[in-house]
Amino acid sequence: MNYSSETLNRFSDDLAARLPAPGGGAAAALVGSLAAALNSMVCNFTAGNERFRSVEEDIKSLLKTSEELRVELLGLLQADVDGYSAYSAGVKEIKISTLTDSEKEARREELTKQAAATPLKVMKASAKVLEVCRPLYAKGNAMLLSDVEVAAVFALAALKAAFVNVRINLAYSKDETYKKSVRTESETLLREAQLIEKEVSAYCCLKY
Length: 208
Hints:
This protein has six helices and no strands. It is mainly α. Helix 2 runs antiparallel to helix 5 (145-170) and helix 4 packs antiparallel against helix 5. The chain has a single domain, classed as Formiminotetrahydrofolate cyclodeaminase monomer, up-and-down helical bundle (Four Helix Bundle (Hemerythrin (Met), subunit A), Up-down Bundle). The protein starts with 7 loop residues before the first helix and ends with a helix.
């Protein structure tokens, strides 16, 4: 199923159904994309407005970045669905293959790392969405300040949800060096994201 050409209602129906995919990883990517879309909306209501002429170029740059992230995260939604299907097929192939035990173990490790790659990308993209929120809350149209805060909340939620999926996949890896590296990277992304979301929220609370 290619969700890029399906309705949101179809995605929601499939997410609720007894289907192996989409699941939490795809949902995380969708939430991240919605966060980016909110940032883009704020940019679009700011750019071209005479009151914000002094930050026009900054806003246009933020809009470009935001739109790239929105598209990227929608793509990662589909990548997560496809990745789960590939993982399941790969596990089944291992069971009926004539590979040696060591070869089977190496193939399982490869599949595990591939499965962890997409949610890690969702984390990184969601972190970048939050990086757009940071200058946007101060430079964007103040009438849409609450939308920037919602974008930050969504982006952090997407990042945390993706972190859950990274953590689950790491549990199946036996490569300790790899696990330590990815765990350190993902935990750093999460800590920094929490700080930015807190910063955006604190600013918004002062304004309304």
